[in-house]
Design a protein that fits this description.
Rossmann fold; 7-stranded mixed sheet; 33% helix; disordered C terminus
Length: 280
Amino acid sequence: MQTSEELKDIVKEKYSEIANQSKAQNETSCCGVGGCTTIEYSVFSEDYTKLKGYNKDADLGLGCGIPTEFVQLKEGDTVLDLGSGAGNDCFVVRELVGKSGKVIGLDMTDAMINKARENADKLGFNNVEFRLGDIEDMPIGANSINVIVSNCVLNLVPDKQKAFRETFRVLKPGGHFSMSDVVLRGELPESLKSQAEMYAGCVSGAIQADEYLNIIKKTGFENITVQKEKQIHLPDEIINQYLSNQECKDFRNGAFGIYSITVFGNKPINPECDLDTMCC
């Protein structure tokens, strides 16, 4: 079994490659990780092109939702984007928080940070910055962020409990998050799961939806809400090859499957525990 550090190294390597690819290349290689270039459509990503602040150079087609769709931002907010990539969500957020707001993008891949900074420089933004760092150990001060967004990233983090504890720590009391991510519902047959991971790299690291939401709850967040959910439809060529007739029926009836969800949660105004000092 691979260690957390080995898994992170794999993600860094793959997303370094992705940083130098176009949106079209990434969409046709299923979350940009290769292995299925004969598939000519995107499985997860949604259309950002009509959103204010959209910048095509920052859109690598890597998301599985649009967390800013439900994020409840206001002018002047300080917003943190976890796994910010080339800056796509950061630039949309910047449009919503205005010149008086601040946007921080956090990514652990040097190539993505460099690409995002180049994009920000082209746009002339001075209130958007990109920091190199690990979501499990964020280089962000405690109680300093109003809102956190993330798009198809937490499923790739080995220690999701640590990631959400860090999310809780850096949010101001009363602050909130809106994150799009990939989860599983029901037990996928191993043969299908392995092929799904080859077909769409974003499935790697995905856990059961109930477990995902329970981690958030145990961290101390309140008002946890699934704002949007959609099932990811794998092509028949995979379904028919790796599932029995009954499993095919179960999959199509929703007994098990891969889902994109967008989740909201807020940090209590008076949290019982301070995860920065661990005083309760």
